[in-house]
Specification:
single chain; alpha/beta; Rossmann fold; 35% helix
Length: 220
Amino acid sequence: MTDQIDDHTRAVYAAQGWGSSRVGFGSRPALLIIDMQWDFVDPASPATCAPMAVDRLPAIRQLLDAARAAAIPVFFSQGLVDPSLADVGLWKGWAHRTGHSQVEGTRGAEIVPELAPLPGEHVVRKRRPSAFFQSDLDVFLRGHRVDTLIVAGSSMSGCVRATVVDGFSLDYRVMMVNECVVDRTIEVLERNLFDLDAKYADTVSLAETEAYLAGLPSGS
């Protein structure tokens, strides 16, 4: 991965103390995979995050397998637009605004089969970027007594970012798995990771996350 953050930016953040501390993993994690739907993975989609979304699917699946092995709660979000566009809101992207992305009932709205939810894994259906906005995600997380939200998926600058900020606002320890988040360009991805890591959440590696999950007490 290339370094997209210049020395001046790093110096300004460092001078104000941004990024000088870590949130850290808690004791009761859950995994949330955000919007890994065909319309973000398929290179032919007008809203695609390919090739990055395709290239990173194996890493996201590896994270999912580790979460399942640790028996922690697993959640998926699924961004949706009604075919009538009555719920579309003020999306600026052409594909969303005109009903060419994540339309309910289409293949593009489906979660890709490599990451298909299992019975008992909750799918959060959402109409806006954040997986918390007007959804039942917070209710289920609190029901499981979750204190740590491990996030992956798409897109880092959009729905992942919005979810991370809301997770922070709700006092969850949010962990962004570096190899498991995707965007349309590496520059956009890295700049958003840098900013969120400095202010609201931790960027963690897949290996670090797997080791944490493997070390959880049985039945946690």
